[in-house]
């Protein structure tokens, strides 16, 4: 059994210069696809569940799926992470269900729609860090709001994202403020805003520096070299999967995601966690459509789900290889949560301290 904290995993990634994709999970099929891909290339894994995933599957079902995946893939360290926690209760209840890491997204208020001010964000994120660290769990915070630099809008398609339009000062994380935020909240990882947004409709053209501000990462990494940077909204929305989707009755408008080469550039500049949900949704849905159109007599759900799992696993494997995650699982010796708690209590896991050594 190898349930790892985000902090230990990202410290290992920083020490060995790689990034870890964090894939969203809602059901058994996504879990199996991600884990089979990881096992196939010896990659450690971050499985993240949103509030939506928790209410879709139910906390008990989700926790049991995680347990089953751990038992089936014992050689793969798995970090179980709450994606976009909106308040203290969401984060703490995730830990009660076995999550080893939580995101307190205080960039938005509890309704996950209203942009919050800096003081609100610091207060709630620091409180989650204080509580989570007591039991050894890790914390990701977010500073700046995810949204498009082209339109000023957040993507509300998945129910998470601000309403209306914001100016660039709120859509781009400020490095000085980031340094203050990390010092005041003690987060283990920091999600930054640089022009990415959730969902399929990120950019109206292949992104260049004016709409995907990779320099934000460079500047934050220069200020905070030991803080793990997280990129949200990092699906690439692969053209080949858009084509399969649209060729079988789907109607996805022209759109561009974050090119994989930009994600690799980000990892070289200090990004350690790369959030990906939409790509797996798109590939799975494209396969459903393909089967439905090409085999109209088919009614066994497994005949739809199996190709969907293979499609998702193919994307996961490609990201593990591109980000340098492949080949790292066997090198990690998992530190139990109880030990992590002692290290926080002893003050040896400050957000700005050098990575803990995690080699097997
Ligand atoms: O936060 C964004 C993820 O894509 C999760 O989406 O809330 O629809 O599960 P969801
Ligand atoms: P995508 O919608 O780009 O996959 O982003 C997912 C994400 O950031 C989850 O937190
Ligand atoms: Zn996100």
Write structural notes for this entry.
With about 350 residues, this protein is of the alpha/beta class. About 45% of the residues lie in helices and about 10% in strands. The chain has helices at about 5-15, 30-40, 50-55, 60-70, 90-95, 120-135, 170, 175-185, 215-225, 240-245, 260-270, 280-295, 300-325, 335-345; strands at about 20-25, 45-50, 80-85, 100-105, 140-145, 190, 230, 270-275. The chain has an eight-stranded parallel β-barrel, surrounded by ten helices. Helix 3 crosses helix 4, helix 8 (about 175-185) crosses helix 9 and helix 10 packs parallel to helix 12 (about 280-295). The longest helix has 23 residues, at about 300-325. About 50% of the residues are buried. The model has no long low-confidence stretch (mean pLDDT about 95). Bound molecules: glyceraldehyde-3-phosphate, 1,3-dihydroxyacetonephosphate and zinc ion. The site of glyceraldehyde-3-phosphate has 11 residues, from helix 3 and strand 3.
């Amino acid at each position: 059994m190898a349930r790892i904290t985000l902090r230990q995993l990202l410290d290992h990634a920083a020490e060995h210069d790689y990034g870890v994709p964090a894939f969203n999970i809602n059901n058994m099929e996504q879990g199996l696809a991600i884990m089979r891909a990881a096992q196939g290339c010896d990659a450690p894994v971050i499985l993240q569940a949103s509030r939506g995933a928790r209410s879709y599957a139910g906390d008990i079902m989700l926790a049991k799926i995680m347990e089953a995946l751990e038992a089936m893939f014992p050689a793969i360290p798995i970090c179980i992470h709450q994606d976009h926690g909106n308040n203290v209760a969401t984060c703490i209840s995730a830990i009660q269900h076995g999550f080893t890491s939580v995101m307190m997204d205080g960039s938005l208020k509890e309704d996950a729609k209203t942009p919050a001010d800096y003081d609100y964000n610091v207060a709630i994120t620091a409180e989650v860090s204080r509580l989570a660290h007591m039991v050894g769990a890790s914390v990701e915070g977010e500073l700046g709001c995810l949204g498009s630099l082209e339109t000023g809008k957040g993507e509300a398609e998945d129910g998470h994202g601000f309403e209306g339009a914001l100016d660039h000062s709120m859509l781009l994380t400020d490095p000085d403020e980031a340094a203050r935020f990390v010092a005041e909240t003690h987060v283990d990882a920091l999600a930054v805003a640089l022009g990415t947004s959730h969902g399929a409709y990120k950019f109206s053209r292949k992104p260049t520096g004016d709409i995907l501000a990779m320099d934000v990462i460079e500047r934050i990494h220069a200020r905070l070299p030991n803080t793990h940077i997280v990129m949200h909204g990092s699906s690439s929305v692969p053209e080949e999967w858009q084509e399969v989707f649209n060729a079988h009755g789907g109607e996805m408008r022209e759109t561009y995601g974050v090119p994989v080469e930009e994600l690799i550039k980000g990892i070289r500049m200090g990004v350690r966690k790369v959030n990906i949900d939409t790509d797996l949704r798109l590939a799975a849905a494209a396969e459903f459509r393909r089967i439905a159109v090409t085999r109209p007599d088919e009614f066994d759900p497994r005949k739809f789900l199996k190709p969907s799992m293979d499609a998702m696993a193919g994307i996961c494997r490609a990201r593990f290889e591109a980000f340098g995650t492949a080949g790292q699982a066997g090198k990690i010796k998992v530190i139990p949560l109880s030990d992590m708690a002692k290290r926080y209590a002893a003050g040896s896991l400050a957000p700005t301290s050098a990575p803990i050594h995690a080699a097997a």
